[in-house]
Amino acid sequence: MSVITGEETGEEKERNRSRRKWKEKTGHRRAHHPHQRGPEDVWKRKAEQYLADSGLLHTIIRAGSLQDKDGGLRELIVGKDDEILKTETRTIARADVAEVCIQALLFEQAKFKAFDLSSKPEGEGTPTTDFRTRFAQVNSRF
Known about the structure:
Layout: H1 10-26, H2 39-54, E1 59-63, E2 65-67, E3 76-79, E4 91-93, H3 94-106, E5 113-119, H4 131-136
Parallel strand pairs: 1-5, 2-4
Antiparallel strand pairs: 3-5
């Protein structure tokens, strides 16, 4: 999950300038499958690997595209290794991501795991309420 701030520091400006140059040079727009990664994805994964290797208690949640919609109305999809990129549904309500973050703090089944997170469209499937079972389905530690 990314944190977006309103103002860039000098270091961020340089990093973003570097990304723009790379995108212009390669014609890269946005990753659509696991083998089309930009430099920011590589660094995110390196940071995740560093955290996983640290031994610190963690849960890595890779949320899909965020939507400003009400939470608790959709079935959540949990995957690993960019499996979600192979599905048609790659979005999730911000409220659902927040709820998953809170639930991850409450259940042992979420500790030391990493997973992708999206949701089915509203009206498809049953809204997720059993987070313990959902976390238990995840077997990926990175």
